[in-house]
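I'd like us to work through together how a protein chain folds, taking it slowly. To get us started, please write out a protein record for me. Label the sequence line and the structure token line clearly, so we can match residues to local backbone shapes. Once you have written the record down, we can walk along the chain together.
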Amino acid sequence: MSNFNYIYSVIDNYAPEPDIEKGEIIIPQTYPYYDEMLMSYVEDGIKKRSSYKWEAFIKSLKSLGQEEQEKIFFYDEPTNRKKYGLVNTAVFLSNFIVTKVLNDKCYPGSTEIYCVDNGMYAPLILLAQVLEWPTKIHTETYEKKLKEYVNNGIRDPDINSNFIDEISRKLMGCEDECDEENLKELELRKKYFKKALLAMDVPLDNTVRYKCDTKTYTCFPSGDEDAVHFEICSSTCTKPKYKCNKTEYVCQQSTAEDADNEETCEVECKPPPMFKCNYDTFQCYESNEEDAITEEACSGLCKQIPDKFLCNTTNYTCEKSSSNDAVDFEECSRTCVTPPKYLCDTKDYTCKESNHVDATDFETCEESCKAPPKYLCNSEDYQCRISTEDDATDLESCLDSCQAPSKKYLCDGTNYVCIPSTSDDATDFDTCSASCRAPVTAKYLCDKTDYTCRSSLESDAVDLETCKASCKPSKYKCDTTNYECKISTDLDAKDYNTCVNDCKKSGSSFLYIIILIIVILIILSSLISAIYYFLRKKK
């Protein structure tokens, strides 16, 4: 039987037969509070029947979808899910009773207009409240607090009302600060929350809880959510014991049998003194230096021992040494002898003993005493490469003979560059380069002395045609305004020198003009007289 059906059986005041296979025990309903809360209320000292029916609440719960049912009754919880569902239902009922039932005016016989609806008003309000509940309050925080409340023993709200107070403040919208009316409502919610739990036969833990005072290590009564029964508190509220960590020499909390109080541990938890050896007296003495060691280790090392020797490989003499490789004098003298010297024999390239000043130790000689490599010419890239062939020679001989054949070149008449060629007309590169030149086009500039085009290498020189077209003397005409010769294309224009000679402002010009006018007048007068004479004679 699911937790959902279990809640139905409890709130319906009906206990079905226990499911023997699953080992369930169903406790029958024994408290009558639901009927009091849902079916009636008191107003002005008169008990009146409420329009909210218990059957409507059952139908509203059953109308919830699967997802909403899971939210209200915690289907996904492996343990305590029935208690979670019952406590959640009690939270809903305490909220609904205070906000709706206690303010109900729609009792049988009521003349309120909105109550005359064939009894549909109350069931619809109840249904709306039930449907709204999963989204109104269910959050991760709410569900976590609800589970903590159940898992910590479902405290009697009269002893510890932290859970229902916090949820009620959220529903009333006064989480930070509640006014006097809110505080009264808070008490009502706590009252009906407890009644609902008792009606559903949810056992309440009304024992006093305790917390540990970590200063005096005594248990004191507390209403906090994390408070526990006295037996649990007294078993855990003990002054911690400490034990010395002899690696770092600090006191750490410990449950070991030889652990002691912190004060005693701090006094005794000191590192042992360290020692060093005096090699003059071979006695150990206390020291704080970094290389100091324990007394036991020092005692084992600080002992007078016979002299040891090590061979000096520079002059091959035995010298005193404290090295781990040092040996007694006899053994050192037996092996500490000057080694022979060697020189490379270039006939067969082997190292042989020698007293020559250039002689070295055998390893040095062996490393350098090697026959020089032989070389052969690579006919593809004409490079000398190391070879073991019989006809291989030394590097110098190979380099002399390993020369690439000379290339021949012909001039490319399009781009005027020398390119490799096997033609019979091909020559060496220098000869080709000397003759492979692009033809030079002659350039000209106008010689304005005699207006002829002459060959020139100047950057502004042009071809002969262009030069001839522009290399012509300019024509000039006299400007009588200021008597200056200016370039002109008129037909009566003259060369510059002629213009300059003619274009002069002279003092006799005016007289010349007067004389010319007089002559013209005389000629005209004579002509008029002749005409007059001719006409008279004719008459």
About this structure: DSSP finds 19 helices and 20 strands in the chain. Residues 475-506 form one domain. The first helix runs from residue 3 to 11. Confidence is low (pLDDT under 50) at residues 1-6, 10-37.
